[in-house]
Write a structure and sequence with these properties.
- The complex is a heterodimer.
- Chain A is α/β, with parallel strands linked by helices.
- Chain A is elongated and about 100 Å long.
- The relative contact order of chain A is 0.07.
- Chain B is α/β, with parallel strands linked by helices.
- In chain B, 25% of the residues lie in helices and 28% in strands.
- In chain B, strands 1, 2, 3, 4, 5 and 6 form a six-stranded mixed sheet that branches.
- Classes of the chains: A alpha/beta, B alpha/beta.
- At the A-B interface, helix 6 of A face helix 1 of B.
Chain lengths: 477, 111
């Protein structure tokens, strides 16, 4: 034997012939499994016993795949792939213990040699990653407040101010583009406030006609108007001792702005047709994507109401101004949807990530979330690649989509569309439901109506496809 | 009454993991423990859900397997499929041992 390693081995003296190496291995805080050349277990220490749940005595002589039961053993065993392992291999995988728990582990496999330099087998070390994963989750949560995720400077500034605002009982005005998370922030403010145990009532001021909205907000008494067959409590009444969240406050009709102003002054609501008021202890949080200052200048929003609502103001920056948050949010939503949809997706390819980071996200976090959901649904591989992203993302149309849509001069109650309507029936701006429906249709067409084949194309079970077909009403076509 | 048994395989052995098995031995045996029908199914890919679905469509009474997730185990029990898990050994020997009434969870059957 003339190899260098064998010479070194021959020259090296044993560390100490009296040292009990088995005891030493047992005391290590790392799982150690020693295997022979056929990958049968010769020895495993206490940590391996603890992780796998298999007693060391029972493990002796068993093939390592039966001892470890790791995904790596059964799908890409480094030893079986390369014939004989020459270099140390380290990878993360999972195993199923004897108490049926799936445990994330890091496995390091290295070849061992006898004193003459001949391969003698392998040594495998196992690290339990459960604590590390928990820590990672906590680190992930460190960049969040409530359900809002962000680490950019404007978001950190907001996270600092939100607890202060929550503790106050003054009215809050939340502004920000569509999809930035105004509703979520409003709920977070409520949850962090002393009113958290009280109700959080939300009403969209742009969703109802004026008369209905008035009745919804303030309630009515029996006989107040045609069709008022019984007394009805308004949202103010329902939000007593809690928070009333008025979303799209910019769409509130002028007459109701006066009524809201009166409430903010007197803290008393008068249901329609009732002369007796109700003293409602309600905190108001209002939100809008419109420019209220401009609306005030144009006489479409009452200045005095604006001043009363604008006591504490929170502005959520659009995603394009939140440097570093796109990456964080992409990872966050990938984890969220992968877990929700039970997919084993570890991340994005470099190209996909580059495309995602280069995109301008006119629909902000909502659009990013939809993109992540789409990609996780479509991806059948380990990583999300360019082909798993919607086609419109790769088209250079971003500048035209960022354009701010001017307020229509006379459309007070009609909400302005945030994006120009697409001229072609493409998928941009489409909800996941529409995208999913299209995916199902495409799969059905490609499989000539064969549902089993369509389900396989989509990576779903037949029952899932059946349920989704019913959900989208595709059968009816 | 006949009994239907499913054993996920990895080569000739009981698959170390239920969720990563792509071969399944399905056995139908009579009251006297005699094997009436035996077949091996090759699955398109590893999937615990697909195996559960197979067990239900085949109306299996028993699954003999290696490692299995608690969630999947509970699901099968809920669906009234008996599960003997943590079994190590060649599929044929494990089956014989079961038919003799000696197999229990955690058994290692060495050839």
């Amino acid at each position: 034997m003339t190899s260098k390693s064998s010479k070194t081995s021959k020259e090296q003296k044993p560390i100490h012939p009296e040292i009990d190496f088995y005891r030493l291995l047992n005391d290590l805080p790392l799982g150690v499994l020693i295997l022979d050349r056929q990958r049968r277990a010769l020895y495993c220490n206490q940590v391996v016993e603890a992780i796998t749940g298999l007693p060391a005595a029972a493990a002796q002589g068993l093939a390592c795949r039966h001892v470890m039961r790791s995904r790596l053993c059964l799908t890409q065993c480094p030893v079986s792939q390369a014939g004989a392992l020459r270099e140390t291999v380290c990878c993360e995988t999972d195993l199923i213990s004897r108490d049926r728990q799936r445990i994330p582990v890091r496995v390091t496999l290295a070849p061992t040699y006898d004193r003459y330099g001949k391969p003698a087998g392998y040594v495998e070390t196992v690290e339990d990653l459960r604590l590390l994963r928990e820590h990672d989750e906590k680190v992930g949560q460190a960049f969040s407040f409530g359900h809002i995720v962000g680490q950019s400077a404007p978001m950190e500034k907001m996270f600092r101010i939100v607890p202060v605002i929550a503790q106050s009982d003054a009215s809050v005005l939340i502004t920000g583009e569509t999809g930035t998370g105004k509703d979520m922030l409003a709920e977070t403010v409520h949850q962090q406030s002393e009113r958290a145990k009280g109700p959080f009532i939300k009403i969209n001021c742009g969703a109802l006609p004026e008369t209905l909205l008035e009745s919804e907000l303030f309630g009515h008494t029996k006989g107040a108007f045609t069709g008022a067959v019984e007394n009805k409590k308004g949202r103010f009444h329902l939000a007593h001792n809690g928070t009333l969240y008025l979303t799209e406050i910019g769409d509130l009709p002028l007459p109701l702005q006066v009524k809201l102003l009166t409430f903010l002054d007197d803290k008393v609501v008068y249901p329609l047709g009732d002369t007796k008021g109700f003293a409602a202890d309600v905190r108001i949080i209002a939100a809008t994507h419109r420019n209220l200052e401009q609306m005030v200048r144009e006489g479409r929003f009452r200045q005095d109401l604006f001043f009363r609502l604008n006591v504490l103001r929170l502005h959520i920056p659009p995603l394009r101004e939140r440097e570093g948050d796109v990456h964080l949010l992409l990872d966050h939503f990938l984890r969220y949807f992968a877990q929700k949809l039970n997919r084993d997706i570890s991340g994005y390819t470099a190209k996909a990530m580059k495309a995602l980071l280069a995109y301008s996200y006119p629909g902000n976090v909502r659009e990013l979330r939809n993109l992540a959901e789409y990609a996780v649904n479509v991806c059948q591989e380990d990583k999300i690649a360019l082909k798993h992203l919607p086609a419109y993302l790769l088209e250079s149309r971003a500048p035209e989509m960022i354009e701010v849509v001017p307020e229509p001069p006379h459309a007070v109650s009609a909400p302005t569309p945030a994006l120009p309507p697409p001229t072609e029936p493409k998928m941009e701006g489409a909800s996941w439901a529409a995208v999913e429906r299209q995916l199902i249709m495409d799969a059905l067409i490609k499989s000539r109506g064969n549902r089993l084949q369509a389900a396989e194309r989509l990576g779903w079970s037949r029952s899932t496809l059946w349920r989704k077909i019913r959900h989208h009403g595709i059968d009816a076509i | 009454m006949t009994q239907r048994i499913i054993i996920p395989l990895h080569e000739e052995e009981v698959a170390p993991r239920f969720d990563l098995s792509t071969e399944v031995l399905t056995v139908e045996c009579g009251d006297d423990g005699q094997i009436l029908k035996e077949k091996i199914l090759i699955l398109p890919g590893p999937s615990a859900e697909r195996l559960c679905h197979l067990a239900l469509t085949e109306k299996a009474h028993l699954i003999i397997c290696g490692g299995i997730d608690q969630e999947v185990f509970d699901y099968l029990i809920w669906k009234r499929v008996q599960v003997i898990d943590d079994v190590i050994g060649p599929g044929a020997l494990v089956l014989q041992r079961y038919l003799k009434g000696h197999l229990k969870a955690g058994d290692i059957v060495r050839p």
